[in-house]
Amino acid sequence: MEHIKTSPRRSPQPTVAIRPPRSSDGAAVWRLIRDTEALDDNSLYCNLLQCSHFSATCAVAEMQGEIAGWMSGYVPPDKPDTLFVWQICVGEPARGRGLAKRLVADVLARPECDDVRHIECTITADNAASWALFEGMARQLDARLSRRTHFSRDVHFDGLHDSEFQVTIGPFDKDSAAVAIAA
Q1: Quick one: pLDDT at residue 150?
Q2: In 3-state terms, what secondary structure has residue 122?
Q3: pLDDT surpasses 80 at 14
């Protein structure tokens, strides 16, 4: 009898659903950010406002009924063609699935971002994960990435926080942006 080699069965990965946040998600978002060492904490009230007033340009990822990912962003009033990504957070159980890019892609695909042709964010020099994420998005969008000091450690943070570099990606073709990033 011939033995057939089989692969061990892997349990299926839980499904992740991405959606605009609701105000009732604020506390879970706040806990997710608080539990992610690399991120600056915001007040719970700030996250509640993001989940309500800014829900059209923010996104949560749900996995097995729990908030597993978060992206906060907004369109600055003086830059209607720009999505400013404030914070992206993916919990440990959901990492390695390209979820951060999918969160951004979901927001870009919404009608509130119809005029968006640029993505901006700020990143500290030592945040390798964020640099890799945004450099990868720029490549996928076939768009230029520029960086400049935005908030200086000494001038703006009184020496209490590393300098933040403003990263700008764009211009890019909005119609294909969400598909390109999510790929």
Answers
A1: 86
A2: strand
A3: no
